[in-house]
Target: Extracellular solute-binding protein
Amino acid sequence: MKRILGALSIAAVMAASTVVQAQDIVLQALFMKQTAYSDKDVRDMTTDFEAAHPGIKVNLEFVPYEALHNKIVASISAGSGGYDVALVDTIWPAEFATNQFVDDLTSLVPPRDPIFGGAWKTGEYDGKIWAMPWILDTKYLFYNKDILAKAGFDHPPATLDELTQQAKVIKDKGLADYPIVWSWGQAEALVCDYALLVQAFGGQFYDENGEPAFTKGGALKALQFMVGSIKDGISNPRSTEFLEEEVRNTFSSGRAAFALNWTYMWPLANDPKQSEVAGKIGIVPAPGTPEGSPQAAINGSMGLSIMRNSDKKDAAWLYIKYLTSQETQDKYASMSLPIWKSSYADPKVVKGQEELIKAAETSVAIMYNRPTKVQYQEISTLLQQQIQSALLGLQSPEQAMKELASQTSGMK
Model:
């Protein structure tokens, strides 16, 4: 019965496409302006969509990632007249579904197998899909090949210990004042780097009983590593102020040998107009540890949702279906890689970014998810504050994590 109803729902939406095209419909769509697809990419995709669906126009709005969540919540509170389609981070479906901000898309989405399993985690909560996967992203280790060669290394670090050792040699030889740069400003970017390190050390945010596990194992080791790297002078101390763009600019200027960043940095750091190290860059999965995970990767994927208060749901789904189609994603596969498995064997997708694709084949399969919590935003804010407190030397890692565990205990 569920399969029949699902098929009928899809058929209804497809049939509606003829109706929608005959009308003058204006969709309001909200995106972010930072990483992944560029504003221009989204505008070009949308222009192509409008040409294929002459009855539909899409008004685009771009905001920084840090403003995206609150912008969506505010639009729901305003009632009708808000957004029809919005870009949703993988950490929000629990909150958005529970509070009925977005529609259940389970009956509309395509078969799962052709799409990476990690991508489906983007919009999944309580066994249902609340956002169609669109941006498939994780953080990689970028490295400056010239600096490594001058330091006497013929390969990038395979473990965090090796990263530390190589960074110390690079610093001692005067090749970089601070060899490693991170996104450790007080924002979600900081939680992403921390979560990646938690995975590397074999840790977890919550134990099997659902209690905070920040004070032990890999969760504590991750923060100890972060604090130690600043004290040792191998991580740029300004990382505590940086977001992704500051990381990209520091690395692209040749002032860092290593950087952790998203896919979007690969084409930009290799663009001679924007980078002093273009053509000298390598990319590999983030290194792990022998006792934890051999490599590490954070799930930074995002999906497209239909807002619950939209009165143009059929047109909204047509737009989402177009943007997430394999044809569209393959065409714009430079700053964000496709969610479709077979795209990675397509010469048109692979050409010119062979190193990135090779790294992605490992990283995409092991992406670590931040907690699926209705109160994730509050948990993340507390986590950012406590990590920053330790990084700035205001508390020891042990004290910071003990206080965090107390603050977050019982949060849903």
Summary: The chain is about 45% helix and 15% strand.
